[in-house]
Give the backbone structure.
Amino acid sequence: MFKDKTVLITGGTGSFGKRFVSHLLQNDTPRRIIIYSRDELKQFEMQQTYDAPCMRYFIGDVRDKHRLKSAMKDVDFVVHAAALKQVPAAEYNPNECIKTNINGAQNVIDAAIETDVRRVIALSTDKAANPVNLYGATKLASDKLFVAANNISGATGPRFAVVRYGNVVGSRGSVVPFYRNLLNEGKDILPVTHAEMTRFWITLDEGVQFVITNFQRMQGGEIFVPKIPSIRILDLVESMSGKKDHEIIGIRPGEKLHEVMVPEEMAHHSLEFDDHYVITPAIKFFDKTVDYKINKLGERGVQVADKFEYHSGTNPHFLTVEELVKLDKETL
Ligand SMILES: NC(=O)c1ccc[n+]([C@@H]2O[C@H](COP(=O)([O-])OP(=O)(O)OC[C@H]3O[C@@H](n4cnc5c(N)ncnc54)[C@H](OP(=O)(O)O)[C@@H]3O)[C@@H](O)[C@H]2O)c1
């Protein structure tokens, strides 16, 4: 799909970006891969590993539309991964989170339309479904901007879609490296905010593969949600520390007990496919003939049941402690 094409990744030095680049370099022959992010040190470090001739490293902020526009010249595909994503930091610095996650999203859309990019996928999170924290609320606003962007771009402009998934195993700042650090420091009782907490669980490779496949599936306007397992936080503790003992520290500001990826209120707009769900746009675009029940790969979806909700606590698929141990070893 990316043969001789140019791909730009905002936030390309992050956990997702690096694995996505690694996948492209191993499995495809892109003309250019452009990393777009702010911090020169992260880019310098990434260049030590990813130095193929097609790699380009652009310093830039998604808050800067002019820079985005010059970076997107002759670009075919964009993955928008740049975000401020720490829940407490967003609560403490709300306007900074809004500037990056919402204004940045609009800048990516404007730049993609003005430079005639072909397809754009923006990464979203389960925290954007029925959000209770500012991070989730900004990602919901971003999702809405990307879905509606298909209207602005018209019949021949870029197509925009969103990929929404849950906790990425081992990503920067997430619970697995946090627990691993504590165990390495000699702590043997791990902290837990609430004993009943559940989360959706996806590996970086699965997330990357899902984004790549959705570039092929997308018609524009979809929110793609993968079918993935859930975990119980106490099972994670046991899988990493080898025992059930834990210390309850209380739920954090803006934290939910369970996460949702397809809210019940969106059931009437949601379709089920073999390995994923699609939340279809609530608005009609210029092209009213788009049939989301058959995607560009020819896969067929069916309307989900009334009141359906894709919820980490009622997910039929939970990972066992043994499966978590195995996954931990594989993703180290
Ligand atoms: N990790 C998860 O568990 C998870 C789950 C669901 C969804 N997601 C979503 O997936 C995406 C990628 O997550 P990730 O785990 O790869 O994040 P990450 O490791 O924290 O990387 C974030 C990237 O964004 C860049 N960035 C931040 N602010 C920027 C700005 N203003 N302009 C340009 N670049 C900026 C960072 O580089 P600089 O600091 O150098 O700019 C970095 O390259 C995010 O949109 C996130 O919301 C993540």
Notes: The radius of gyration is 20 Å. Residues 10-17, 37-39, 42, 61-63, 81-85, 100, 104, 123, 125, 165, 167-168, 171-172, 174 surround NAP (CB under 6 Å). Residues 198 and 258 are 5 Å apart (CA to CA). The first helix runs from residue 15 to 27.
